[in-house]
Amino acid sequence: MALSKPGLSAVQIVKASFSDAISSSCSVIDKHADQIEAFLRGNDVLFSLDIIRLDLCSKFQQKVLRAEHGIPRGSVSTYKRIAKHLGEPFGARAVGTALATNPFPVIIPCHRAVRTDRTLGGYQGGLEMKRALLEVEGVGFDEAGCVATENVFY
């Protein structure tokens, strides 16, 4: 059964498929859903790392994700700067790999990491999405499509 059908919301599909289902929620889930919605609308939201299972990641990826989480809204860092910050001066590629497999891309905003030459690099949601998320945060771009901001972290 697919929960994705054009013209129908997931709620409508679930109701049609599971007529006995009871709709319910809880305050914790509602709070986090509201925060995610606010983030996607462009509001400044800092998510708590307490709501995710970082223990499911390798120790190195945990360090990278925590560093990425520390980059403020409207700022960027580079894979190389993050690696140096973590004491791994030649670890830029490993940082990129850790971010490419970020299981928490909204909670830990990996779109804030770019290449040293200020081109976007990669992103799970595609480069259009990465650029849109940065623009919502006030990060500008030059004519060549490179990040144009003085707010570089680490």
Largest sheet, described in full?
A: 2 strands, parallel
Instruction: Name the helicity range.
Output: 25-40%
- N- and C-termini, Cα separation: 46 Å
Uncertain stretches: none
In angstroms, what is the radius of gyration?
A: 18 Å
Structural classification: mainly alpha
Describe the strand arrangement of the main beta sheet, using strand numbers: 1-2
Question: What is the annotated CATH architecture of the domain at 49-148?
Answer: Orthogonal Bundle
| Helical stretch tally | 6
CATH class of the domain at 49-148: Mainly Alpha
* Number of DSSP E strands: 4
The whole-number mean of residue pLDDT values reads: 91
Strand content: 5-15%
CATH superfamily of the domain at 49-148: Winged helix-like DNA-binding domain superfamily/Winged helix DNA-binding domain
CATH topology of the domain at 49-148: Arc Repressor Mutant, subunit A
Overall 3D geometry?
globular
Order of helices and strands, N to C?
A: HHHEHHEHEE
Brief summary:
The protein has helices spanning 10-17, 27-40, 59-69, 79-85, 92-100, 127-136; strands at residues 77-78, 113-114, 140-141, 147-148.
Describe this structure as you would to a colleague.
The chain starts with 9 loop residues before the first helix and ends in a 6-residue tail after the last strand. The radius of gyration is 18 Å and the shape is globular. The mean pLDDT is 91. The chain has a two-stranded parallel sheet with strand order 1-2. The protein has helices at residues 10-17, 27-40, 59-69, 79-85, 92-100, 127-136, and strands at residues 77-78, 113-114, 140-141, 147-148. The chain has a domain at 49-148: Arc Repressor Mutant, subunit A, CATH 1.10.10.10. It is mainly alpha-helical. The longest helix has 14 residues, at 27-40. A hairpin with a 5-residue loop joins strand 3 and strand 4 (147-148).
